[in-house]
Write a structure and sequence with these properties.
Elements lengths: L4 E7 L3 H14 L4 E5 L2 H12 L7 E6 L8 H8 L8 E7 L4 H7 L6 E4 L4 H12 L7
Parallel strand pairs: 1-2, 1-3, 3-4, 4-5
């Protein structure tokens, strides 16, 4: 099965969430590259390194937490606007926050989704189907 994206960047300071989500995506898409990053600064660096020279037509999926040390998810998105790789990314918020102000603030960015943690296989399948047009995903 060919994945709808080339790379997955899980940007979250919660190592357990990164591990669980990484394992779920590996099971569904064993051929994608997965990067787990615990802060926004490291994520910006990795996105530059991994995506800047990439000439493929595939997008890169970013699942971004809002509440992180250093720079939060929204600050990360603000800094990302200055990078040339932003056009190669499909970004969704993946957070525990259900605050209306966070959801409203997220609407100011070019995001493909606002997802609640933790992600289940069913939520992941629905998200990928809706955002990337996948019709068949084996779980």
């Amino acid at each position: 099965m060919h994945p709808p994206f080339q790379r997955l960047f899980l940007i979250d300071d919660d190592a357990i969430c990164n591990y669980l989500h990484s394992e779920m995506f590996k099971e569904l898409f064993p051929n994608i590259e997965i990067y787990t990053l615990s802060n926004g600064y490291d994520a910006l660096d990795q996105l530059k390194i991994r995506c800047e020279e990439d000439s493929s037509d595939y997008t890169n999926l970013v699942l971004l937490d809002i509440k992180m040390p250093g720079i939060d998810g929204f600050e990360f998105l603000d800094k990302l606007k200055d990078l040339s790789v932003k056009n190669k990314l499909s970004i969704a918020i993946l957070t525990t926050s259900s605050h209306a102000k966070d959801k409203q603030k997220a609407e100011n960015y070019d995001l493909i989704g606002y997802l609640q943690k933790p992600l289940s296989f069913a939520k992941m399948e629905e998200f990928v189907n809706n955002e990337f047009g996948r019709k068949e995903i084996s779980c």
